[in-house]
Every structure is written in structure tokens, then in C-alpha cells.
Write a structure and sequence with these properties.
mainly alpha, 144 residues
Length: 144
Amino acid sequence: MEGERLTDVKNLEKDIEVVESGYEFLLAYAAQGRPPHDEASYPTPHARPTLEDMLASMQNVLAALGETQHEYELVIAEDLRKASATLRFVLAQPLMSSELVDNLNASIHLRAVLTDFFLYSEIFKPAAAEAKPAAESEPLFRKA
């Protein structure tokens, strides 16, 4: 978009990584079949610290995008607001369970942020210096 500049993702990489790795942890947590429990009385690892870290990182990215006028960054910001509300809702629950976390993992709001981050991070990756010219690369479709 002409005249609009993207936020420097380099400053956001750590926060994006916290959200992405947190989601991976939550997938494993959900698979453990933990019943609703007070985390203080249940063996570690606990989901709550990961959720808190993810929420803090989402808020950092949202703050960094605060002045943006770039259309896609505005989409990311809106998705971050929705996912943050979802995380706060889960964190407000006194008991944590695998089922609760599994339902969070399925949330379209959290998945939208992850997809936003994957796409956003991809455009900032440097092009491979050794990339083959198109003529030398494998064809997309092979003839039978």
C-alpha cells in the first residue's frame, strides 16, 4: 500500500514467538485429559502461566501496532483484541481443564491471530541468496 509502512516486525519477533510456542504448549496440555482442577493442587506444567505470557505478548504487539494505518496491520490489531478477550475469559475461570484449553485452542479468534502472525512474519523473511532462478527450479506440476 503506497504511503503506508509496515511496523518493524523485528521488534515483535519475541512476542510473536511467545504466542506461537504457547499455542503449541496448549495443544499438548489439552491432550493430557486433565479434569477441572485448581492448579495449585495439581502437578505441573500448568496452562495459566502460558496463557498469561501469551496475553502479555499479544498486548505488546497490539501496542506496537497502535498507530498503524496499514490495512493488514489493522486486521491483526482487531484479531488481537478478540483473542485477548478470549484469553482473559479463560484466565478468569477458577478451574483449569484440558477440555477448557482444548476449546480455547479451537477458538477462531486465537487461530486468526496465529494465522495473522504466520503471514505477517513471512513477508519479513529475507529472500534466500542462493534461490534458484525460476527456470532451474522444480516445476509446480509434473507431466504424467
